[in-house]
Amino acid sequence: INIHFKIGNVDAGSAATNNSGVATINFTVPESLPTGANTLTASAAGFTKNSQYYAPSIATANFDAVKAPTTLTFQIPLPASKVVEEKDTITLKGRLHTNSPEKTGVSNRKIIFLVNGQPIPHAMTNANGDYSINWKVPVGLIIKDFISAQFEGDGHYLSAPEPSQIDFIIKHKQLPPATVNTQGIHIQGIYF
């Protein structure tokens, strides 16, 4: 006997019953399924077995769909000294995934970055949940800085606990020494 399953209005597939009359399917809950109360429906068409007719049957069960917990990883490939120079470009990258055993990547979600608590441009996760952006270190940061990444959650996923912030040190670029000559101040070939 084939049992057909639906979750809400979503077709979840069919499975044949075993010798005990139990049908089992594996189903990945889609993001389109709303959180909160939902209904699972199992139905079997009428059939004849050993000259006996069995009428169609339907059974339902209610369950609550909840937001999935997530994990956010974050890394910056920095030199061992953790020293970067102003105007250097560094890569901010990581992965957003569910806490399921498969650690399924969460796609198309915004990852927010904060430097010393101030926002900088964000990244979006790809189909595998990976994200990566290049960030140009601005002039004027303090010498010791920190950067953090966040996923704030949405209608289907809980916010991720923040990974450890990453500390780094800014090496301020030094202006070349000024020399005075008869034509004014000279800084490496530039005259004022």
List keywords for this structure.
192 residues, mainly beta, 51% strand
Q: What is the secondary structure topology, with strand pairs?
A:
Blueprint: E1 2-7, E2 10-16, E3 36-44, E4 47-49, E5 52-54, E6 57-65, E7 70-75, E8 83-85, E9 89-98, E10 110-115, E11 118-124, E12 130-136, E13 144-150, E14 166-171, E15 179-181, E16 184-187, E17 190-191
Parallel strand pairs: 8-14
Antiparallel strand pairs: 1-2, 1-3, 3-6, 4-5, 7-9, 9-12, 10-11, 10-13, 13-14, 15-16, 16-17
Give a structural overview.
This protein is mostly beta strands and 192 residues long. The chain is 0% helix and 51% strand. The chain is built from no helices and 17 strands. It has strands spanning 2-7, 10-16, 36-44, 47-49, 52-54, 57-65, 70-75, 83-85, 89-98, 110-115, 118-124, 130-136, 144-150, 166-171, 179-181, 184-187, 190-191. The chain has a five-stranded mixed sheet, with no helix packed on it. Strands 2-1-3-6 form a four-stranded antiparallel sheet, with no helix packed on it. Strand 4 and strand 5 (52-54) form a beta hairpin. The chain is rod-shaped and about 95 Å long. The N and C termini lie far apart (91 Å). The mean pLDDT is 85.
The structure class reads mainly beta
- Return Rg in Å: 29 Å
In what range is the share of β-strand residues? over 45%
Q: Alpha-carbon distance between the termini?
A: 91 Å
How many strand segments?
17
Helix content percent band: under 10%
Describe the sheet with the most strands: 5 strands, mixed
Spatial ordering of strands, largest sheet: 8-14-13-10-11
The parts where pLDDT drops under 50 for at least 5 residues are none
Q: What is the 3D form?
A: rod-shaped
Distinct helical segment count: 0
- Mean pLDDT, to the nearest integer, reads 85
Order of helices and strands: EEEEEEEEEEEEEEEEE
